[in-house]
């Protein structure tokens, strides 16, 4: 599943300063509108007891659901009714049956003994109580029943939810502006119980037969193909084939007037609102390509499990995307593709998200985590294959080359915090406790660790492992042990993988069951020896006596080694060891080549300087992904005081010779950090000269505003990241080129190519007339393409004209007849201005006057997030005074902890110039006197 929220979109909207969004959408796992959950690590003992209290008893096992639902959603009516027959395997004598239910009213119940498949005996109508806190309906049986198969028949009533969870109502505007309603589902993790009474745990798999009654003007779709239709005056009943044995959270259905595009041979369709059906051709093509690639790669064809797969684009879907078996659902901007409008970055997002959800058809659907503590087994595989499968479907785009910079390097930052958790972990069984596990540990870290295992095993062995893992556990549920068993079975045939004293289980669990990751310290004696050691890496401290250790696979490359030759795997299984050096004293040495392992690497200063020399003199002598890794590792090692900051900055300076995107993306994150710290300071100009120097040699080779038909995807990313810094640093040619391109579109001479639209619109606005701002605002109002609307909202926030900023922010509180924003887009408008100090000042003034609207309509958490964003961009005493004035106004609205947090952030920002890091950076910039070429 892809869980998207407003905070993730903030990062997307601010993505103009980086060629890749700060997070891929599949990494965003928070509740909609900032309903933050506690992600601290609780005591495991208390956690287990709390979890047990909310879990179903193990003697009740569902076998089959026969579900009927009736809805009048075509009128906007939220009321619906239903009935369900739950076939239960009761495995011990009992007088109690539990089912899950949330917000439903049960109107009747009957218990039957199932003598044979066609013969049932009525037993009784049951008494029951509702445990609202635990979301149980607890049925009491007068006389204890013996182990056997029973059928619990329930009739119930409910209301379609409005929070995009469970069985919910949403809407869209048709081509004539009329509002049309639809009903859809989102059940992961534990919201099937909000639609109908059921046993809502992932391991409790059952088959499902579904019938839906609806208006004849609407159609119903679900996981399975339609088996029959029936009806009468004013209604129709759509009946679906029975599903395979599956987890209840994967059940999905939708009642709407949507149309679809179809590839009949591939048994794939893409559904969308009628006025967006022309945007479904690319996702259909990508879906077919990705599925074919996965079928071939896994050797387990999808159609051996399910007869079809549909994709549906929804205007309102807070989960972002969901892998329901045979019916994947997406927010529109993550699925629909409009030629001439959709950007290359959005196309990348669409393709990789389709690959993510399709990978789930095996990893999550055929084989499912037995409990949410093993969520990483679902999401880690899907994260890995969202890039691999997309790359297999479109090899010319080199999607695999995005994995390290979009996934590995980002989660290395998160997983270095003291509060991080292991991959296998539970916080309990409540809605928020489970939701909190949908984080970048379950997604990005798990995907990175699985990538490490894949490369360690080699591609053929890895494919055998995952095939064994799926085949052995198909239609079942799994934990870590089942994955380990598959690895052991495949590698026990004589594969020389591990040292004799190490077993697969120890390797896997050292990465899966421990929080954090190690830093591999490589200290050369220059006497023929290397001391290798490992410590847990923390972002803010060094703990040399931490007992945690990992079984670390590593490779070593030395100067002169052919880059195309396979490297030998070596192992560090203890805290430290001395080995012979494969490099002579004057040769550099590189470990963890291409960042295959999930850890950082630090070297002695002499080796660092030899690597810097190699990067500068012959950039391609170091493998591509190792170049990005060296920048990323050096920066974070320096920030944690494990490496002299000057060395990290020297590593960074080589990028003026770099012509590939991944190292530039790593460098851009370093630029962003220091830019945010130095903006507003007296020596900020030195930093601008520094950045100008590093980008200039590359920037002069780029055409900022045009795209060639045969341009590589990674070259588009490169142009975006370098050009955005050129404009951000105020390079005149960048600002003039973007202004001219924008003015040419405004005048009707030539439209801006979508692949450079975000750059041109954003920076072109800063030096052009009010007419261009009005043009882009009108374009936003006329667009019904969600991805384009997000781009335009972001671009409009780039203006530095105070009057335009003020007027633009006020549109966020305009009534619907005045502006056609949905609720989330109103929030996007407020965050879009955070890209400049002028925008921050305008937002402060706006909140001074309109904080009550933000708090009441968007929520206090949103107001708080805006305040914290302002605080993070406050660097000077004058800016602090502006924020403090706002905080006084908000004192009665925000909790004291939120105000204290903002003030603490500002205090750290103001103190930064006199910290070790601030002083060292200033000294470096002053001493080296950079000048652009």
Automatic annotation (TrEMBL):
One of its GO terms (cellular component) is side of membrane. Keywords: Aminopeptidase, Cell membrane, Disulfide bond, Glycoprotein, GPI-anchor, Hydrolase, Lipoprotein, Membrane, Metal-binding, Metalloprotease, Protease, Signal, Signal-anchor, Transmembrane, Transmembrane helix, Zinc. It catalyses: Release of an N-terminal amino acid, Xaa-|-Yaa- from a peptide, amide or arylamide. Xaa is preferably Ala, but may be most amino acids including Pro (slow action). When a terminal hydrophobic residue is followed by a prolyl residue, the two may be released as an intact Xaa-Pro dipeptide. It comes from the Eukaryota. Its EC number is 3.4.11.-. It is found in: Cell membrane; Membrane. Belongs to the peptidase M1 family. This is Aminopeptidase. One of its GO terms (molecular function) is alanyl aminopeptidase activity. Its cofactor is Zn(2+). The active site is at 357 (proton acceptor). The keyword Transmembrane applies. Binds 1 zinc ion per subunit. Zn(2+) binds at residues 356, 360, 379. Residues 61-250 form the Aminopeptidase N-like N-terminal domain. It is a lipid-anchor; GPI-anchor; Single-pass type II membrane protein. Residues 282-492 form the Peptidase M1 membrane alanine aminopeptidase domain. GO terms for biological process: peptide catabolic process; proteolysis. Pfam families: ERAP1_C (PF11838), Peptidase_M1 (PF01433), Peptidase_M1_N (PF17900). The record marks 443 as: Transition state stabilizer. Residues 588-886 form the ERAP1-like C-terminal domain.
């Amino acid at each position: 599943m892809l869980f998207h929220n407003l905070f993730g979109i903030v990062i997307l909207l601010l993505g103009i300063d980086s060629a890749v969004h700060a997070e891929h959408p599949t990494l965003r796992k928070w509740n909609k509108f900032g309903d933050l959950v506690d992600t601290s690590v609780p005591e495991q003992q208390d956690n287990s007891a709390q979890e047990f209290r909310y879990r179903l008893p193990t003697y009740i096992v569902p076998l089959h659901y026969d579900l009927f639902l009736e809805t009048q959603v075509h009128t906007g009516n939220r009321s619906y009714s239903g009935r369900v027959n739950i076939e239960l395997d009761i495995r011990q004598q009992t007088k109690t049956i539990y089912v899950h239910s949330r917000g439903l009213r049960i109107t009747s119940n009957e218990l039957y003994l199932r003598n044979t498949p066609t013969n049932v005996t009525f037993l009784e109508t049951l008494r029951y109580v509702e445990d609202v806190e635990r979301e149980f309906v607890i049925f009491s049986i007068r006389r204890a029943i013996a182990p056997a198969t029973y059928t619990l028949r329930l009739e119930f009533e409910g209301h379609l939810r409005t929070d995009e969870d469970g069985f919910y109502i949403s809407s869209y505007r048709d081509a004539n502006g009329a509002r049309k309603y639809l009903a859809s589902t989102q059940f992961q993790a534990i919201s099937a119980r909000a639609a109908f009474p059921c046993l809502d745990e992932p391991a409790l798999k059952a088959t499902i037969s579904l019938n839906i009654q609806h208006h004849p003007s609407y159609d119903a779709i679900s996981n399975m193909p339609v088996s029959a239709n029936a009806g009468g005056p004013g209604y129709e009943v759509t009946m679906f084939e029975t599903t395979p044995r599956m987890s209840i959270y994967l059940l999905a259905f939708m009642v709407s007037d949507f149309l679809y595009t179809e590839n009949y041979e591939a048994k794939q369709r893409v559904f969308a609102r009628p006025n967006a059906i022309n945007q479904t051709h690319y996702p259909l093509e990508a879906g077919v390509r990705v599925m074919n690639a996965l079928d071939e790669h896994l050797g387990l064809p999808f159609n051996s499990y399910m007869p079809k797969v549909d994709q549906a684009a929804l205007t309102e879907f807070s989960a972002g995307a969901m892998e329901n078996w045979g019916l994947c659902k997406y927010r529109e901007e993550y699925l629909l593709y409009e030629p001439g409008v959709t950007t290359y970055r959005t196309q990348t997002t669409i393709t990789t998200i389709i690959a993510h959800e399709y990978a789930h058809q095996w990893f999550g659907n055929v084989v499912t985590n037995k409990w949410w503590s093993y969520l990483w087994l679902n999401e880690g595989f899907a994260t890995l294959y969202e890039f691999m499968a997309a790359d297999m479907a479109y090899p010319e785009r080199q999607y695999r080359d995005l994995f390290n910079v979009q996934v590995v390097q980002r989660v290395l930052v998160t997983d270095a915090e003291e509060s991080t958790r292991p991959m296998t972990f539970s916080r309990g069984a409540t809605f928020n406790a489970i939701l909190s596990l949908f984080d970048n540990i379950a997604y990005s870290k798990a995907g990175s660790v699985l990538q490490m295992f894949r490369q360690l095993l080699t591609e053929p062995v890895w494919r055998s492992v995952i095939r064994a893992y799926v085949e052995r556990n198909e239609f079942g549920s799994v934990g870590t042990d089942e994955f380990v068993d598959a690895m052991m079975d495949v590698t026990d045939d004589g594969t020389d993988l591990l040292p004799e004293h190490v077993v697969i289980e120890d390797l896997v669990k050292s990465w899966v069951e421990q929080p954090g990751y190690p830093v591999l310290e490589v200290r050369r004696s220059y006497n023929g020896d290397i001391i290798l050691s490992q410590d847990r890496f923390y972002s803010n401290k060094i703990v040399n006596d931490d007992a945690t250790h990992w079984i670390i696979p590593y490779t070593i490359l030395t100067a002169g080694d052919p880059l195309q030759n396979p490297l030998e795997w070596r192992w560090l299984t203890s805290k430290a060891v001395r080995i012979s050096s494969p490099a002579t004293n004057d040769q550099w040495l590189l470990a963890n080549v291409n960042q295959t392992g999930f850890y950082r690497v630090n070297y002695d200063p002499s080796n660092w300087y030899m690597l810097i020399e190699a990067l500068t003199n012959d950039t391609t002598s170091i493998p591509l992904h190792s170049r990005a890794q060296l920048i990323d590792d050096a920066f974070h090692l320096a920030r944690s005081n494990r490496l002299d900051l000057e060395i990290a900055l020297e590593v960074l300076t080589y990028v003026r010779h770099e012509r590939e995107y991944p190292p530039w993306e790593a460098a851009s994150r370093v630029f962003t950090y220091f830019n945010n710290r130095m903006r507003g300071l007296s020596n900020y100009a030195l930093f601008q000269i520094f950045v100008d120097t590093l980008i200039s040699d590359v920037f002069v080779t780029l055409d900022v505003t045009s795209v060639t038909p045969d341009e590589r995807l990674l070259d588009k990313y490169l142009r975006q990241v370098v050009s955005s810094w050129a404009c951000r640093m105020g390079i005149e040619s960048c600002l003039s080129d973007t202004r001219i391109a924008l003015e040419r579109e405004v005048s009707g001479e030539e439209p801006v190519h979508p692949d450079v639209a975000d750059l041109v619109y954003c920076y072109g606005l800063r030096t052009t007339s009010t007419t261009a701002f009005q043009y882009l605002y009108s374009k936003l109002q006329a667009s019904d393409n969600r991805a384009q609307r997000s781009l335009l909202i972001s671009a409009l926030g780039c203006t530095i004209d105070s009057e335009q900023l003020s007027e633009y922010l006020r549109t966020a509180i305009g009534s619907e007849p005045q502006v056609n924003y949905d609720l989330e887009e109103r929030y996007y408008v407020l965050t879009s201005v955070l890209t400049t100090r002028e925008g921050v000042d305008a937002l402060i003034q706006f909140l001074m006057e309109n904080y009550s609207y933000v708090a009441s309509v968007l929520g206090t958490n949103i107001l708080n997030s805006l305040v914290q964003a302002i605080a993070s961009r406050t660097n000077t005493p004058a800016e602090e005074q502006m924020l403090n004035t706002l905080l006084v106004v908000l004192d009665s609205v925000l909790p004291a902890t939120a105000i204290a947090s903002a003030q603490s952030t500002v205090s750290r920002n103001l103190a930064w110039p006199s910290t070790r890091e601030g002083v060292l950076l200033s000294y470096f910039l002053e001493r080296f006197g950079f000048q652009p070429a």
